[in-house]
Amino acid sequence: MSRSVLVTGGNRGIGLAIARAFAAAGDKVAITYRSGEPPEGFLAVKCDITDPEQVERAYKEIEEKQGAVEVLVANAGVTRDMLLLRMSEEDFASVVETNLTGTFRVVKRASKGMLRARKGRIVLISSVVGLRGSAGQANYAASKAGLVGFARSVARELGSRNITVNVVAPGFVDTDMTRALTDEQRAGIVDLVPLGRYAQAEEIAASVRFLASEDAAYITGAVIPVDGGLGMGH
C-alpha cells in the first residue's frame, strides 16, 4: 500500500538515495531541500528546518498534495568542522540548530498526524561520528549523539500508538562530499573500516526502508550502524 513519505534533505546524497528507495517501492515521496534545484520525480518542497514557519508550511503543502506523513526520515544536516579552540559559538550553535533542533521540529509536526492515525514510522539519520567522536567535529558529533537520546525518549512516548522511532548511524559513504577528499585522505579513512570500503548511499537507504517496513514493526528505540564495522563497540 502506498504511503505518504517525507525525507528531509532529500535532494542529494544519502537523502536522495532514501527517497528513491521509497519511490521504487511505490510510496508517495516528498522531499525538502534548502537550496539549488531539486531532483525530479518527487514532491519537492523548499524548506529550511531551522525556521519553524517554513516547517509548518512544508507540512501543510505535503498534507494537501499527498496526505498526512506516515513515514518520516529526518536526514537534513550540516557540518561546520573546526578544532574546538578555533570553533566559534556560531559554528557550534548553527550545527546543533539544524541537526538536532531541526529534527525536533519535523518529528514533532509529523507525530501529530501519526498519533491521530495511531501508526507511523520515524527514522533519524545520525552518524558513526555521534557514537565514537571525531577530532574537529565536536559540534557535529554532539548533534548526532543527541539524536539517539531524542529518538529513544520519543520512542517511549509514542510506542503505545504503534509509532516506532529508530536511528540509522551511517559511516563513511561514497557521496559528493567524500569524493572531494584527496586520494590520501580517502585511503586513510578506508584503513579504519574493517570492511575496507566506503558505503554506497543505497546501502543506507536499504536499512531505512527496513525500519519503515512491517518487518520492523517490533523494533523501536534502536540504533542501527551501517558503517562497515567502524563504530563497533560504541
UniProtKB/TrEMBL annotation:
The keyword Ribonucleoprotein does not apply. InterPro entries: 3oxo_ACP_reduc (IPR011284), KR_dom (IPR057326), NAD(P)-bd_dom_sf (IPR036291), Sc_DH/Rdtase_CS (IPR020904), SDR (IPR050259), SDR_fam (IPR002347). GO terms for molecular function: 3-oxoacyl-[acyl-carrier-protein] reductase (NADPH) activity; NAD binding. NADP(+) binds at G9, G10, N11, R12, N75, Y140, A141, A142, S143, K144. Residues 3-176 form the Ketoreductase domain. Its EC number is 1.1.1.100. The active site is at Y140 (proton acceptor). The keyword Cytoplasm does not apply. GO terms for biological process: fatty acid biosynthetic process. Pathway: Lipid metabolism; fatty acid biosynthesis. It is an enzyme of class 1 (oxidoreductase). Signal peptide: none annotated. SUPFAM superfamilies: NAD(P)-binding Rossmann-fold domains. Homotetramer. Catalyzes the NADPH-dependent reduction of beta-ketoacyl-ACP substrates to beta-hydroxyacyl-ACP products, the first reductive step in the elongation cycle of fatty acid biosynthesis. NCBIfam families: 3oxo_ACP_reduc, PRK12826.1-2. This is 3-oxoacyl-[acyl-carrier-protein] reductase. It comes from Streptomyces cinnamoneus.
